[in-house]
What does this fold into?
Amino acid sequence: MKAVNDFVVIKKVKEEQVKVAGLELTEKLDTDNRYIKGKIISVGNLGEGIVKENDSIYYDKHAGHGITHKDKFYQVIRVRDIVLIE
It folds into this structure.
């Protein structure tokens, strides 16, 4: 699978669940955080030089769309939706 143009294929990174005062907080309860952590699987030709495969990034949780490839779920976003590279 190879991304094209300014698209990036990413795999969402599951954040650790946090316990606060005995309550387990999951990402579904994290309404204050607008960004999601992901790992880049493939970069389109227009995104090369900005990001590369295996980069850890944060992207807008409303960005892109999901795709299933070989029974695995990925998110496809545009390079402009990436807000931070670790």
Notes: The radius of gyration is 14 Å. The chain has one domain: 7-85.
